[in-house]
Design brief:
The complex is a heterodimer of chains A (about 110) and B (about 120). With about 110 residues, chain A is mainly beta. Chain A has strands at about 5, 10-15, 20-25, 30-40, 45-50, 55-60, 60-65, 70-75, 85-95, 100, 105-110. Classes of the chains: A mainly beta (about 110), B mainly beta (about 120).
Chain lengths: ~110, ~120
């Protein structure tokens, strides 16, 4: 059973506009959430994270929002750049655990 | 090197054969993870090592899969009697220590194809 879901397999955005990637989870025990970025033929690289005690975390152009009641998080990229084109994975875990549960990924294309 | 290194990058094997996949973590990282990513899916947890011991092997799909980390550094994932369904990218990650908030660094993966 998929505990972390990314329902949009792909997204295209114009350069300079906002990209919004969405993620839903089912396990209420998850209390730490991460976004990873993956280029072809490379491993995922950590992008940004958020603890369940917060509802927002910002790092430069990247902001993650967490809505615990809806079991939903989103990643906002603004302004989007062509170099942001990659597959983005949402992941969740329990702070006391060591397994990350990943979504199926969203392929973002930023059009110059 | 500075990052997590996995060898080989690609492996093609015949059904029923035995394979070993190697992971060299970042020096000094005590935590090491193996994940498997099938086509169109996200990475799926297999096993976690803290030092030399497998602290959590609950993700290994069956007893054909085994992993070791004898000296607390390099790890080898071993798959016996390979099946076509084992075809996937096998990812290794390491982190300085355990815990969700400790950043895990992934290698580029080994693409295993069982024909």
């Amino acid at each position: 059973d998929q505990q972390v879901k990314q329902n949009s397999p792909s997204l295209s955005v114009q350069e300079g506009r906002i990209s919004i990637l969405n993620c839903d989870y089912t396990n209420s025990m998850f209390d730490y959430f991460l976004w990873y970025k993956k280029y072809p033929a490379e491993g995922p690289t950590f992008l940004i994270s958020i603890s369940s005690i917060k509802d927002k975390n910002e790092d430069g152009r990247f902001t993650v929002f967490l809505n615990k009641s809806a079991k939903h998080l989103s990643l906002h990229i603004v302004p989007s750049q062509p170099g942001d084109s990659a597959v983005y994975f949402c992941a969740a875990t329990q702070n006391t655990g060591n397994q990350f549960y990943f979504g199926t990924g969203t392929s973002l294309t930023v059009i110059p | 090197g500075a990052g997590v290194s996995q060898t080989p990058s690609n492996k093609v094997t015949e059904k029923g054969k035995y394979v070993e996949l190697r992971c060299d973590p970042i020096s000094g990282h005590t935590a090491l993870y193996w994940y498997r990513q099938s086509l169109g899916q996200g990475p799926e947890f297999l096993i976690y090592f803290q030092g030399t011991g497998a602290a959590d092997d609950s993700g290994l799909p069956n007893d054909r899969f085994f992993a070791v980390r004898p000296e607390g550094s390099v790890s080898t994932l071993k798959i016996q009697r390979t099946e076509r369904g084992d075809s996937a990218v096998y990812l290794c990650a390491s982190s300085l220590n355990s815990g969700a908030s400790t950043e895990a660094f992934f290698g580029q993966g080994t693409r295993l194809t069982v024909v």
